[in-house]
Amino acid sequence: MGKRILSSFLRIDARSLGLFRIVMAAVLLGDLLRRWPWVRAFYSNEGVLPNHNHIFNLRDQGQVWSILHAFSSVGENHFAFALILLVYLGFLLGWKTRVFHALSLVCLVSLGSRNILLENQGNYAAVALLFFTLFLPLGSRFSVDALVKSLSSRDEKTDAELNDRPRPTEAELAATRGPGWSPLSFAALAVTLQIVIILVASAAWHLQGSWRDGSGLHYALHVERWVSDIGARVQGAPGASRGLSYLLLAAECVVPLLVLVPVARRVFRGIAVGLLVVYALTLGVLFSLGLYAWTLLAAAALLIPEESWDAFVRRFSAGRARSVLYDEDCGVCLWLARLAKRLDAHHHLTFQGNGDLEGLARGKADGAVERVDLPAGITAELVQDTIVVVDEKGTVFTRSRGIAEIVRALPFGRPLAFVMRLPGIGALLDVFYDAFARRRADISVLVGMDACGLPAPKDERDEEAAESLEVPSAERARRFVTGGLREAFVFVLFVAALAQAAKENPLPFSIPQGKALAAIVTWPRMLERFDVLAVSAAEDGVFVIDGQNRKGVSVDPLTGAPPAVDPSAFNARKLGQLWNDYLNRVRQREYEPFQKALRDYLGKGGPALAGRAPDEQLMGYDAYWVRYTIAGPGESPARVEKGRDKLFTHSRGGRLAIDRLPLVKPAVRRQE
Predict the structure, then answer these.
(1) What is the C-alpha to C-alpha distance for residues 487 and 482, in angstroms, rounded to an integer?
(2) What span, in angstroms and rounded, lies between the C-alpha atoms of 334 and 198?
(3) pLDDT of residue 663
(4) What's the whole-model pTM score?
(5) Using CA atoms in the order 358, 361, 366, 368, what is the torsion angle rounded to 10 degrees?
(6) Which phi and psi (to 5°) does residue 359 adopt?
(7) Element holding 425 (H helix, E strand)
(8) Distance between CA 520 and CA 511 in Å, rounded?
(9) What gap in Å lies between CA 165 and CA 15, rounded to an integer?
(10) Beta strand 322-326 with 369-372: parallel, antiparallel or unpaired?
(11) Is 90 helix (H, G, I), strand (E, B) or coil?
């Protein structure tokens, strides 16, 4: 019992790791694509923060690095983003998984560290999860690496071998593990506890404020720089926001407890995963928080227990069972059958060579194969010309329709199969199928596969290696040493992250950090602060530019619209998370040295006026932080202006009456 409980915390199912990799890579790709349109503004020397200015302003901190500091021009940064795109795609596909995993971590840290004013809680969460999972085998399932290893470790040649699907033994798995890798790892516990820390820290912030009485979400939805367009539409529904407030707070408090329950894991972990998915989707839809919500959505995959995966695999549906008659003399056909077998998680497919027409092979729920009468429409001539697929009712499908039936039998294959069967698309696929079928033998020979019953030469060394499952003692010792070093580093990394979390969040404990532990989390930007949607005193603000162009028209170069200083007309949410986080930080005194580059960028037209006609360019502007208070649920108006702080001015200034306000920071002088 004790060993089983220990294993439940020190081991994450390989399928959960594979699913996390896919979802997390998709999240990283989405993050990269939303940043890409702002390459000029945020990452090039023509934007708000030239790299030399960034490095100079951070000279006293020292613990910030980014490979993007080496790229200066807009074109160079577009090239860098293209490289990052390739890295993320490699991570998504699981090709050379550990290499592209490490490179993805480097790229994510570099994107945040190139302009630290863009960082938020989502960056900290994503970096932490990527770092801890770097020590786990994310490429062991649902990856190109896993597929290649599976195809090379078992080279099926007959339909009997295709239908034989034994579960690998522990000895076989141990023999295939790389140096230093074992089924148990502290990294599994560390990444699970990191998810717990994120939720507990967020709950600690919320329990200090308005979330306790159910009004927290109401106030958060009225913070202009956080809310999304969808969130803005539900601002006026106090009843719904109160219910969602309690649900989100309950998820932050309950999920950590459910995750740590060592028994009935399928039930408790299932509830935890469901709550976390609802929590992440709610935040992701209602707010623009960058990586935060979608990183937690990916993290939910790590909590899926082995029992749930095994139950999923056992879901055999007789209605989706298909018998596949393939050309056993075609190397490519056999390879595709081997591929389909590995994608067939529910064992719906049963394979049969076209040289055997003594009945039809059909799979059963227990994995056994039975023989039934061959449908009358299947002849020796038919199976020589096309693939033949038979459903549970005896209906025969050929050509592209047969391929569609195979796809339909695979997990989540129904939508694609439906598209393949549509009129027009099915006819087009038949054309491609017929072209391939006529040349399948030539194609097999061209790619070095068996054709026409002539097998490719076998490598006897591969057979000898496959027969031996015993791991040499020297290899075992090397794995023990490297594994020990890995576990020690993960432990130190976790202690450093825990100390940082206790420092940055109102947690009921503290851990002495010291310079060494601080450096471990600061360099990769694992800053562990998770004050998500923590509204302070129901007050916030927006950054507004009162500019005037050569026509004498007032315009905000951030939005391209007239300056919105009235709380009822705020449109800052249209700028998105990157701009709003940047503007919220740059107006603060500690980031005052970064304002000069912003002033220069705005003087060139900013994001909305760049490239427009000369008479639409700015002659001057004033920058303001417009403060407002948020009314309670059901009160009106929802937002009331509290004050306007002039941050800086440029040239002739703006045209609005608020131009008479004094500068908040006297050290920042009016530029003429």
Answers:
(1) 9
(2) 48
(3) 52
(4) 0.90
(5) 40
(6) 90, 175
(7) helix 425-438
(8) 15
(9) 17
(10) unpaired
(11) helix
Amino acid at 455: P
In this predicted structure, the answer to whether residue 539 has a pLDDT above a threshold of 70 is: yes
The model's pLDDT over 619-632, given as tens digits with 9 standing for 90+, comes to: 889 999 999 999 88
Tell me: pLDDT of 90 over 90.
yes
- pLDDT at residue 668 greater than cutoff 50: no
Q: Which of 328, 335, 336 is nearest to 357 (CA)?
A: 328
- Residue 15 to residues 7, 168, 301, 307, 638: CA-CA distances in angstroms? 16, 15, 9, 11, 47
Cα-Cα-Cα-Cα dihedral sign, residues 91, 579, 234, 200: positive
Q: DSSP letters of 264-321?
A: SHHHHHHHHHHHHHHHHHHHHHHB--TTHHHHHHHHHHHT--HHHHHHHHT---GGG-
* Sheet containing 322-326: order of strands: 349-353, 322-326, 388-390, 396-398
Q: Is the Cα dihedral 532, 537, 538, 539 positive or negative?
A: negative
Distance (Å, whole) CA 387 – CA 398: 6
**Bond before 637 cis per omega within 30 degrees:** yes
Residue 282's nearest CA partner among 302, 268, 296 is 296
Which position has the token pair 């705005």?
602
Query: Which H helix or E strand runs over 110?
Result: helix 97-113
pLDDT at 267: 93
What pLDDT, in 10s, does the model give residues 121-141? 999 999 999 999 999 999 999
The pairing of beta strand 360-363 with beta strand 322-326: unpaired
Sign of CA dihedral 228, 234, 238, 243: negative
Beta-bridge mates of residue 640 = 629
Residue with tokens 């439940």: 8
Burial class (CB in 10 A: 0-12, 13-18, 19+), 424: exposed
